[in-house]
């Protein structure tokens, strides 16, 4: 069963306010989006004081919507009008985005895709659907390339689920001392920037296509990347505006497609592959993640999600299968702890080193 915008609004009329009316009749619902089973919206309080008292209502709204048939996930953010003269953004040290204004429509561009000055190669890491390990692969590959002496940047373009700061163990906010350029963060030999560090949660929810593209363009051109051999871009999952516009405006060295061996993930991966083919972005290879599970106790290897599907797809497309990465608890623990597994030693680190080595040997990284 699919849920619609109207279903959500109708349900929200049940959420009455202590001083009369409900969140819909009082016009507090903003930027409601329904994408598949995911519902996101903002509740906008008339002032910060009322906003502070509305946390219970925000939680109730989230629970109410999450309980509707067809809804897998509901995210509700609370925002409030600022009294005149008070900006929303604080300084970099306040745990808030830096003051540099980010977002807005992308600047018009003449001609076809262009190079980003100082950056020799750009690799996009993409997947057809979320949760297949795209961010994990991006972080580990960046670290593996840096370990082999490449000058590497990592740009987390996933505004709805930015995960690179956690995976790379970065807690600071980036700074913009001159208000024009942004100093990237540094971790495990990699220069890192995440769009999630530049915007508040509310902005992330409200932004759609053009605003997001404007922000991404700024991150490509206004971050002090310096001279890079390769910039890895961790794309949002799927085949949306961001992927399209990015490849139309910027010269990409190629795309790496991450998929799990499950058929459903592969079907989605095929959509991503078709999109890059249409955009004439070279597909450098497929990477199978969560390929097999090796029992840490007895060493028995099990293909939990099936086996061979990604390799067969790669053959069919005539693109290389760049690597098969095992499902390993250590990968998740390392990601959660902020030190990608590729930074250490062991079989998974070696698998990433092999992928990095291949890309370097072919002049792609
Ligand atoms: N090979 C692996 N073994 C064990 N856990 C993994 C592996 N790859 C990824 N994970 C874990 O799976 C979860 C999802 O991974 P990740 O965030 O990289 O996926 P994603 O495709 O970027 O998802 P999204 O774009 O939806 O955020 C994370 O908790 C990550 O640590």
From TrEMBL:
Gene3D superfamilies for the chain: P-loop containing nucleotide triphosphate hydrolases
Residues the entry annotates as binding ATP: 128-135
MF term (GO), any: ATP binding
Compositional bias annotation for Low complexity: 103-114
Keywords for this protein: ATP-binding, Hydrolase, Iron, Iron-sulfur, Metal-binding, Nucleotide-binding
Region (Disordered): 83-116
InterPro entries found in the cross-reference section: FSCA_dom_sf, MIP18-like, Mrp-like_CS, Mrp/NBP35_ATP-bd, NUBPL-like, P-loop_NTPase, YlxH/NBP35
Keyword Transmembrane helix: no
CDD domains: Mrp_NBP35
UniProt xrefs under Pfam families: FeS_assembly_P, ParA
Domain MIP18 family-like: 5-76
Assembly notes: Homodimer.
Role noted for this protein: Binds and transfers iron-sulfur (Fe-S) clusters to target apoproteins. Can hydrolyze ATP.
Family: In the C-terminal section; belongs to the Mrp/NBP35 ATP-binding proteins family.
The protein's name in its UniProt record: Iron-sulfur cluster carrier protein
Organism: Acidimangrovimonas pyrenivorans
């Amino acid at each position: 069963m699919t849920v619609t915008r109207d279903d959500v609004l109708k349900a929200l009329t049940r959420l009455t306010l202590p001083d009369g009316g409900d969140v819909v009749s009082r016009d507090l619902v903003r930027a409601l989006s329904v994408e598949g089973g995911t519902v996101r919206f903002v509740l906008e309080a008339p002032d910060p004081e009322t906003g502070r008292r509305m946390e219970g209502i925000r939680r109730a709204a989230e629970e109410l919507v999450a309980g509707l048939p067809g809804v897998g996930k509901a995210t509700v953010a609370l925002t409030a009008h600022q009294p005149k003269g008070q900006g929303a953004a604080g300084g970099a040290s306040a745990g808030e985005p830096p003051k540099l204004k980010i977002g807005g429509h992308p600047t018009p561009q003449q001609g076809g895709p262009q190079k980003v000055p100082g950056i020799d190669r750009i690799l996009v890491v993409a997947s057809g659907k979320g949760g297949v390990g795209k961010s994990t692969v991006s972080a580990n590959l960046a670290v593996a390339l840096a370990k082999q002496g490449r000058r590497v940047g990592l740009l987390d373009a996933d505004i709805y689920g930015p995960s690179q700061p956690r995976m790379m163990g970065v807690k600071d906010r980036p700074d913009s001392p001159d208000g024009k350029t942004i100093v990237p963060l540094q971790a495990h030999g990699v220069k890192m920037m995440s769009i999630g560090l530049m915007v508040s949660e509310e902005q992330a929810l409200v932004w759609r296509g053009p605003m997001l593209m404007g922000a991404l363009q700024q991150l490509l051109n206004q971050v002090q990347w310096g001279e890079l051999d390769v910039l890895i871009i961790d794309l949002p999952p799927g085949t949306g505006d961001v992927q399209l516009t990015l490849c139309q405006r910027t010269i990409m060295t190629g795309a790496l497609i991450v998929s799990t061996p499950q058929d459903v993930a592969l079907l989605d991966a095929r959509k991503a592959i078709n999109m890059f083919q249409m955009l004439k972005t070279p597909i450098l290879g497929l990477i199978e993640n969560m390929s097999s599970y090796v029992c840490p106790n007895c060493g028995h290897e099990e293909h939990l999600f099936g086996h061979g599907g990604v390799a067969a797809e790669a053959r069919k497309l005539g693109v290389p299968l760049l690597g098969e990465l095992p499902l390993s608890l250590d990968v998740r623990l390392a990601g959660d702890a902020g030190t990608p597994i590729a930074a250490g030693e062991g079989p998974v680190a070696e698998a990433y080193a092999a992928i990095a080595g291949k890309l370097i040997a072919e002049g792609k990284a």
